[in-house]
Specification:
The complex is a heterodimer of chains A (about 170) and B (about 60).
Chain A lengths: L1 H25 L11 H30 L3 H6 L2 H20 L10 H24 L4 E2 L2 E2 L2 H28 L1
Chain B lengths: L3 H9 L4 H8 L3 H9 L6 H11 L3 H5 L3
Helix pairs in contact in B: 2-3
The chains are: A mainly alpha (about 170), B mainly alpha (about 60).
């Protein structure tokens, strides 16, 4: 039990340290908090609204599939709980990016893209090693590494969207 | 409605959108949205813009 607790504590500490390093890397002024202006805060509020409804709708769809006894939900296993959340996250990020509200005043868009690609690579590493070792599906149910694969794709999508927005902005200037 | 007076006042001082944005503490896209009429700024932002461009609120934002 003590080993388990120590493992959890070390895991949380490492996570917090990585988060601090990432924020310091992404923010041009080296601060931990990201600053947004008034228009960005308004747009982010709208993004949260759409993300909330997207999460609710996708949860409803999964529930409907579950009620009709489709094997899809059984196949998703525990990951079924996380997919609506990820859909909400994608909606929030995409809406924020295309309304110029995702990148804060003190963020570097290039560093943000690099960070997204690094996180994506780590997630793909976990997901594809599970696939290679035959651990992705167990008893006809998808296992947690499947979520890593989805997160990997999510971060790649975010990096691509940021790249597209960067090109649009440079043309506008 | 486009705010051409703001754009003209900025151009008179030979300032880019990015320079004005930095001076008032917002993003360049926010200044662009105000000029295009896509975003109605708060009174605080209007005052900050007026101070940087040496104009009054009436000169930049009042619609006849």
């Amino acid at each position: 039990m003590a080993f388990y607790l120590a493992g959890v504590l070390i895991g949380i500490t490492v996570g917090v340290v990585i988060l601090i390093i990432a924020l310091k890397f992404i923010n041009k002024d080296g601060k931990l908090s990201t600053k947004y202006d008034e228009r960005q805060l308004k747009a982010r509020g709208e993004a949260y609204k759409y993300a909330f409804f997207a999460t609710c709708i996708s949860n409803g769809v999964i529930l409907c599939f579950d009620l009709t006894k489709y094997d899809l939900v059984k196949l998703l296993g525990d990951t079924a709980f996380f997919i609506p959340i990820l859909i909400g996250v994608v909606v929030h990020i995409s809406y924020s990016i295309f309304t110029d509200a995702y990148i804060g005043l003190n963020n570097s868009i290039t560093r943000f893209m690099v960070f997204m690609l690094i996180v994506s690579a780590f997630n793909f590493l976990v997901g594809f090693s599970a696939l290679a070792n035959g651990e992705l599906i167990k008893d006809n149910v998808l296992q947690p590494p499947f979520l890593n694969m989805i997160c990997g794709f999510l971060f790649v999508i975010v990096a691509i969207e940021l790249g597209i927005k960067k090109v649009i902005d440079s043309r506008e200037e | 409605m486009k705010n051409l007076r703001l754009k003209a006042a900025r151009a008179m001082l030979d300032m880019s959108q990015a320079e004005l944005a930095e001076a008032v503490g917002v993003s360049r896209q926010t200044i662009s949205a105000v000029e295009k009429g896509d975003y109605n700024p708060t009174i605080n932002l209007c005052i900050a813009i007026c101070k940087v461009l040496n104009k009054t609120l009436d000169e930049l934002f009042w619609e006849e």
